[in-house]
Amino acid sequence: MNNKSVKEIKEIVDNLKVDQYLEYIDILKSDERKSVQKLAVSLAKKLDAIRKEDERLELINTYENDGYEKGYLYIGGIDEVGRGPLAGPVVAAVVVLPPHTKIEGIDDSKKIKESKREELYEIIKENALDYGIGIVDNEEIDDYNILNATYMAMKKALNSMKKQPDYLLVDAVTIPGVDIKQNPIIKGDSKSISIGAASILAKVTRDRMMCQYDEIYPEYGFKSNKGYGTKEHYEAIEKNGITPIHRKSFLKNVL
What we know:
Blueprint: H1 6-14, H2 21-29, H3 34-59, H4 62-69, E1 75-81, E2 90-96, H5 114-127, E3 130-136, H6 138-144, H7 146-159, E4 167-171, E5 181-185, H8 188-191, H9 193-216, H10 222-225, H11 231-240
Parallel strand pairs: 1-4, 4-5
Antiparallel strand pairs: 1-2, 2-3
């Protein structure tokens, strides 16, 4: 490496495979140039982050692996988004991933930046054995209440799949009227890779819908607030009234 410039070394480092990191960390450390030694430190930090993420992904496969050990073959994770907003639908998704899947970055969708969620949305769909999405609109939420509407969205997601799971990992709840073995997991979207994947599909689907509604009703800021009860959203309701996508049962105190 001594016969190469720092720029050339950086280009080599940027194109290394993970299994080459350790070897090159030692090589870079032996270089007397401080800028090259900094590259060694940076590469070591990158390797540490990769290892930690790999450990996390192994951990969030625990519930799935336990299901396989019990004899289940087609394990789905299911989650919903949109229970709290004043407007728009509640959306649920169910995802069946191949056993021992590791997709970097999968987590509770609320913890992930929007650009990363969009990227993961496509990766999850490409890698999933199957997935389904269920949408229940604001009128049905008003008619049946949000909890029942959430269950309806989950059932719609299940019914849209090509093949039903034989075991369901569910974020926090047990879905009534579903003849599939269920395991409700508190904060499941950060503890199960399948539930985390479902939360991402559901959130991206709903967020895209709210962005479309923003074009129809630009006064309400749906692109930024996604229908949640921000100060600006309440002010827009007070000034302009409600839209056809608002949940009247959530706005009894302001109507």
